[in-house]
């Protein structure tokens, strides 16, 4: 399952994008990530950021033919997804 992440916000407002495939994560991490993704409420309107310098994460999951997306504030990000998001952004690019 591919996970595309775009992080925006923070002091500088710089966008950072990256992609990770759960097949490339350790098995226990991939299981946690996939479980966490199934619990997300996709296609909901994004919440307003709590603080002007906080991050928002747009997470798009490609599993089959239909991509699904959700925008989460930093405080809404489930712990089960943090390692996948970090892995995606480590391989990421600006813009």
Please, could you describe this protein's structure?
The chain has one domain (2-94). 18% of the residues are buried. The protein is globular and about 35 Å long. With 95 residues, the chain is of the alpha+beta class. Helix content is 25%, strand content 33%.
Shape: globular
**CA-atom Rg in angstroms:** 13 Å
The residue-averaged pLDDT reads 87
Largest sheet features: 5 strands, antiparallel
Count of helices?
A: 2
Parts with pLDDT < 50 across at least 5 consecutive residues: none
Give, in spatial order, the strands making up the sheet with the most strands. Answer: 4-3-1-2-5
- The total tally of domains equals 1
N-to-C span: 23 Å
Helix content: 25-40%
Structural class of the helices, strands and pairings?
alpha+beta
The count of β-strands is 5
Note the run of SSEs as H and E: EEHEEHE
- How much strand content do the residues show? 25-35%
């Amino acid at each position: 399952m591919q996970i595309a992440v775009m992080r925006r916000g923070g002091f500088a407002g710089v966008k950072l994008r990256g992609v990770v495939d759960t097949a490339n994560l350790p098995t226990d991490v991939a299981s946690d990530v996939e479980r966490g993704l199934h619990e997300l409420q996709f296609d909901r309107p994004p919440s307003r950021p709590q603080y002007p310098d906080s991050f928002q994460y747009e997470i798009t999951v490609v599993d089959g033919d239909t991509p699904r997306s959700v925008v989460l504030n930093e405080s809404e990000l489930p712990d089960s997804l943090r390692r996948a998001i970090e892995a995606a952004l480590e391989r990421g690019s600006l813009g």
